[in-house]
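User: Second chain of the day. Same drill as before.
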Amino acid sequence: ALCLMLRYTSNWQQRAIMLTGIFIADMFSNGLGGSGFAMTLGYSLVNTLELLLCLFLVGFRRALRFKSARAMLLFGFKIGILPPLLGGLAAMLVTLAGGGAIPDAFAGGRNWFFADVLGFCIVFPIGMTISWRQIDKLRLPQRLPLALFTIVLVVTVTALVFPLRNYPLQFLVLPAALVMTSQFRVLGAGTAMIIIAAIVLAEPVPK
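Assistant: Same format as last time:
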């Protein structure tokens, strides 16, 4: 959502419409997760306000181009550390206000922070890099059999490896992901990450 707002909006009115849609989607998502109304409202507001803070900090930047390493590090801190940190703290307060215990609130805030930092480090650069021009250069219609093969490869390896709960074997997904990445570049890397994440998250949490 952040990538779309940065790349394809030209004014705050468009961003306000998208933020409203994100807030509504968050309300449905958190509500379906079994949270009460107060907690659902609180978490949805925190997530939406965190996005709003990112937009204020970044402005209307449309590409990840930097004049120096210092500028890149400053950008990373502004959007990749500060908003997740404030979001994690706010989520902690929401949990406490909803009657959660202090350890649960701390764990929730910590998980919120690390999830958003990882999202910035992994998903955000890919989302800001992929363009329709790059997708056209990949000639996907002509390479459809190869695309389907790499998708099946990543799905099969991930589905076979992760249920085993064997940490070393989980690294077997990397060769499959690299095959997709080598053939379809940034789009392939992003697709492989989404496939792996979806399968892993669908797995039941071990007791």
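The chain is about 75% helix and 0% strand.

User: Great, on to the next one.
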